[in-house]
Structure prediction request, 304 residues.
Amino acid sequence: MSTPAEVDLTYTQIDRLFRASIGETADFSGALYEGDFSLTLEQAQRRKHEFIAAKLAIGPGSRVLDLGCGWGGFLMFARQRGASGVGVSLSRGQLAACRRLGLDVHLLDCRELTPETLGTFDAVVSLGAFEHFCSPEDFRAGRQDAVYARLFRTVHALLPPRGRFFLQTMVFGRNMIAPERIDIRARPQSDEHALAVMVAEWPGAWLPSGKEQIVSSAAPMFNLVQASSGRLDYIETIRQWNRRYAAWSVKKVAVLLSLLPSYLTSRRFREAFTAGYSAHTVCFERELLDHYRLVFEKAALTPA
Prediction:
C-alpha cells in the first residue's frame, strides 16, 4: 500500500492548489455524467453521490464509512442527507481540510480498521482509494490478490448482514502494455511515457489488472450487485478539472510559488506534475486505463 509519505507527495503537496481550483470539499474522483456532458462538474459529482446513496440505502440515521475520504465531498453530502459520516485518510493535508469543516475524519490506515477502531457501519464507500492499496512491490511479489482480499475482509467485518460497499476505482485497461515497458525516458505521449507519468504521480500505487480481479478477490465475502465503466466520464471529469486548474487567480499564483521548492529539489515531483500534457487522459483514451463503479453486498460466510 502507498505509505503516508507517498500519499503526502501527491495529495498533501497539491492540497492548496486543488482546493483553490476545484473547491474546498470537491470530490477528487471521476464524476457521473451518464452520457450527458452538458452537466457541470458539480452536477455530475452530485449525481454520483446520489447514485451511491440510492444503491447503499444511505439516508437519515445511516452511519457511513468513507475509505480514503479525500477533501470530504461525499462526507458533506452524507451529512446533508442526515447520515453520520466517518472518514479515514493517510493524507495530512486532506485530514486538516476535512477537520476545518467539522468532518469526523481520522488519520488511519484502512487496512488496520476493526469494529473496535471506529465501530461498525451501515454502508462503506471508497472513491479512488483502492488504487493505493497494492504497491508495485506487492504486485511484483505476487501479493496483489491477497492485498485486495485483506481489504474486503476488513470491510466485511464492519458491515451488518447484506450491508453494501460501493467501490470506485481505476484499473488497467484492455490495451495495457507489459509493465517492464513503462519508462519515464520514453517519447512524451507514448504509451510507455504516459503510464510512467501516472506511476510518478501516484507513488507506491499499482492498479488492479481489471474488474475481474477485484470481483474475484471480493469472493466469497461479497457478491457483486452492479458494475459499470466510468472511463468516458473520467475523461470529461479530467477535462473540467484541467480547465479550472488553468484559470488564473492571485491566490493560485501564491500557491504555485509555494510549490517552487518542490519543483527545484524533487525529480519525482517534476516527473509527476510537469509533463506538459494530461497523461491520465491519454491513458483513458487509449484504454491503457479503465474505470469502474462496483456495488457489492456482504455475503454470509459458511463456517469452514
The longest helix spans residues 41-56. The chain has one domain: 4-298. Residues 4-298 form a domain with the Rossmann fold fold (CATH 3.40.50.150). The chain has a mean pLDDT of 90.
